[in-house]
Structure formats: structure tokens, C-alpha cells
Amino acid sequence: MVQHQGEVMECTTDTNEVYGPYNAKLGQRGADGNIWSGSTLIFRIIDDRVYSMHEQYLGRLKYGMAMTGRGQLIFTIM
């Protein structure tokens, strides 16, 4: 993206709602890519890999769904 004179660059501040099994609302995905419940970090996403708040590997994020290696749903991003 090239910025021309007089144009204003926009920054991304979008957040996505995150839901767990049975449509339980867990929190939001912040602009940093991590999943937050209020001010508490609950999931970290690094290169489509999902980690817990304690840095434990949980599974993969694919097509907006985080799944374990056994195919169990962790959360969905809407």
C-alpha cells in the first residue's frame, strides 16, 4: 500500500468474537492475533498454532476453527 500526499493511513483494530463448544462466548481476538477475555489472555496464536495462556500447545487454527490433533473443537472465530 502506497501512501500519497493528503491520504491518511488506517491501522487495523478489528476484533472478532470467539466462541467455544456449545456457543459459549469466550472473548475476542485482538489486533495482535491473541484471544482475550476482557484483559486476560486465554489463547495465543502463533503461525496458525494455538497455545494456552500457559504456553501449552493445544492444536491448529484452520478456517476460523481451532481444533486439537484428535479433531476436538477448541474454539471458533466469528
Question: What percent of the residues sit in helical stretches (DSSP H or I)?
Answer: under 10%
Per DSSP, what share of the residues sits in E-state strands of 2 or more residues?
A: over 45%
How would you characterize the largest beta sheet?
A: 8 strands, antiparallel, barrel
Global outline? globular
What count of helical segments does DSSP give? 0
Secondary structure class reads: mainly beta
DSSP E strands, number: 8
Radius of gyration in whole Å, from Cα? 15 Å
Mean pLDDT: 89
Tell me the span between the first and last alpha carbons. Answer: 27 Å
Trace the largest sheet across and list its strands. Answer: 1-2-3-4-5-6-7-8
Parts with pLDDT < 50 across at least 5 consecutive residues: none
Order of helices and strands: EEEEEEEE
Protein name: Prophage PssSM-02, Orf7
Explain what this protein looks like in three dimensions.
This protein is mainly β. The chain has a domain at 25-72. The chain has strands at residues 16-19, 25-29, 35-37, 40-46, 49-52, 57-62, 65-67, 73-77. A hairpin with a 5-residue loop joins β1 (16-19) and β2 (25-29). The protein is globular, with a radius of gyration of 15 Å. The model has no long low-confidence stretch (mean pLDDT 89).
